[in-house]
UniProtKB/TrEMBL annotation:
Gene3D superfamilies: LemA-like domain. This is LemA family protein. Residues 1-25 form the signal peptide. Belongs to the LemA family. InterPro entries: LemA-like_dom_sf, MamQ_LemA. It comes from the Bacteria. Its main location: membrane. PANTHER family: MEMBRANE PROTEIN, PROTEIN LEMA. It comes from Massilia niabensis. It is a single-pass membrane protein.
Length: 203
C-alpha cells in the first residue's frame, strides 16, 4: 500500500471517527435508543388493549345468557369494542396528537361501557356465580392492571424522549433530523383509566 493511499484511508477513518463522535455527542444515538424504547412501550400498551378486546365477546355472551334483556348495555359494549378495534394503529399515531387523542377516546369509551356492564351484572346473583363469568372477570381484572402498568411505562418513556427533544444541545439535533415531542396520555384520561371497571364479584 502506497503512503498516499494509506494517508487517504487514515483521513477517511479519522473523518468517520469524528462524525461518529459528533453524532454521539449531539445526542443522535440517544434519539435512536429512546425512539425504540417508546415504540416498544407503545407496543405493549396496544397488546394489552387488544387482550382486553379479545375477552369482551365471551364476556358479553356470558352476560347475555343471564341478562338478555339488558340489551342497551350489551350493545353499547359491543359498539365500543368495534370502534376500538377498528381504529387503525400505525406508527404515525405516536407523532400525531390528533390521532393519539382519538385512540384515547375510543379506548376510554370502551372502559366506560365495560364499567356500566359490570354495574348491571351486580344485579344477577346467578351470573356472579357462573364459573365462566368468574374466570372472565378475573382475566379482565388482570388485563386492566396490565393496561395501567403499560400506560405508565409508556408515559415515562415518552417523557424521557421529549426531554431529549427539548433540552440543549440535543434540541439542535432534534430540529436537524425532524424529531418532535410525542403526545402522551392526558392527565384527565389517566385519571379515568386508573379507575378500572369493578370486576370483583366475590363479595
Amino acid at each position: 500500500m502506497t503512503s498516499s493511499l494509506f494517508s487517504r484511508w487514515a483521513r477517511l477513518l479519522a473523518a468517520a471517527m469524528l462524525a461518529s463522535s459528533l453524532l454521539s455527542g449531539c445526542g443522535y444515538n440517544d434519539f435512536q435508543v429512546k425512539d425504540e424504547a417508546t415504540k416498544a412501550a407503545w407496543g405493549e400498551v396496544v397488546n394489552q388493549y387488544q387482550r382486553r378486546a379479545d375477552l369482551i365477546p365471551n364476556l358479553v355472551n356470558t352476560v347475555k345468557g343471564y341478562a338478555s334483556h339488558e340489551r342497551e348495555t350489551l350493545e353499547a359494549v359491543t359498539r365500543a369494542r368495534a370502534a376500538a378495534t377498528s381504529f387503525q394503529i400505525t406508527p404515525e399515531v405516536l407523532n400525531n396528537p390528533e390521532a393519539f387523542a382519538k385512540f384515547q377516546q375510543v379506548q376510554g369509551e370502551l372502559s366506560s361501557a365495560l364499567s356500566r356492564l359490570m354495574a348491571v351484572s351486580e344485579a344477577y346473583p346467578n351470573l356472579k356465580a357462573d364459573t365462566s363469568f368468574r374466570d372472565l372477570q378475573s382475566q379482565l381484572e388482570g388485563t386492566e392492571n396490565r393496561i395501567t402498568v403499560a400506560r405508565q411505562r409508556y408515559i415515562a418513556s415518552v417523557q424521557d424522549y421529549n426531554v431529549t427533544v427539548r433540552k440543549f444541545p440535543t434540541n439542535l439535533t432534534a430540529m436537524m433530523f425532524g424529531y418532535e415531542a410525542r403526545p402522551s396520555f392526558t392527565v384527565e384520561n389517566e385519571k379515568a383509566i386508573s379507575t378500572a371497571p369493578t370486576v370483583n364479584f366475590g363479595k
